[in-house]
């Protein structure tokens, strides 16, 4: 494991601040494989597991989420709209959510802020900010993703992660272990031709393959699509929103995070 990016942290007390400045930097190297495979512990340290806690204490996975700071998380509005925050929890540092992992940390939710113009019919503005009740301490397994300073171009290879179904909507095969896949970003015009009866907005990002077969699916909603720059720093460019019903025949559609930078910063400042 290469700890060289920690060298600027000269005091133990400063390590957490140093990691905050190193958003999107993983300690565990990413396995460069195209197609859905199991992830390794620490590969995607910003990945959150969004859970509902039942009256009997059962942990029910709802969606994915992405850590962007010590107090804030991004997810899809269709995951959060109409849900009371007191019954929710977000776990970070998780690989297998059925296991008792030492790296995993659970956080209650203080506040949910859905985009005020979210449309539940066409999923326009499918983005939500979650304020955590506690403050996240960064570790090798829990690090925020960076927010993009520019848009991502078609053709760039990015990564999607989640605990969702691997066989389509009719399957009940949601897995305990986090999975990963690499997918290329697609041109929105091309994507619109494949989804001719649905709206692809400028605030959407499409990623995947025309032939399908590699995609996010049910249970992955709200999770990250991240793309690395030349220094291997990962930026959150997409939030898993919707796609082909069976997750097999079309690319996936994501909320384009670069379009919401002002909304994110303004909402955080106001709350």
Features:
271 residues; mainly beta; Thrombin, subunit H; 2 domains; six-stranded antiparallel beta barrel; 4 helices; 10% helix; 30% strand; globular; disordered N terminus; TRYPSIN_SER; serine protease; Peptidase S1 domain-containing protein
Report on the structure:
There is one protein chain. Strand 12 (234-243) and strand 13 form a beta hairpin. This protein folds into two domains: 45-143 and 261-270, Beta Barrel (Thrombin, subunit H), CATH 2.40.10.10; 156-258, Thrombin, subunit H, CATH 2.40.10. The chain has helices spanning 15-21, 77-80, 188-194, 261-270; strands at residues 37-38, 47-53, 59-67, 72-75, 88-92, 105-114, 128-132, 157-162, 179-186, 204-207, 224-228, 234-243, 252-256. By secondary structure, the protein is mainly beta. The chain is globular, with a radius of gyration of 17 Å. The strands form two sheets. The protein has a six-stranded antiparallel beta barrel. It has a six-stranded antiparallel barrel with strand order 2-3-4-7-6-5. It is built from four helices and 13 strands. The model is unreliable at 1-18, 166-174 and 213-219 (pLDDT under 50). InterPro entries: Peptidase_S1_PA, Peptidase_S1_PA_chymotrypsin, Peptidase_S1A, Trypsin_dom, TRYPSIN_HIS, TRYPSIN_SER. This is Peptidase S1 domain-containing protein. Keywords: Disulfide bond, Hydrolase, Protease, Serine protease. Pfam families: Trypsin (PF00089).
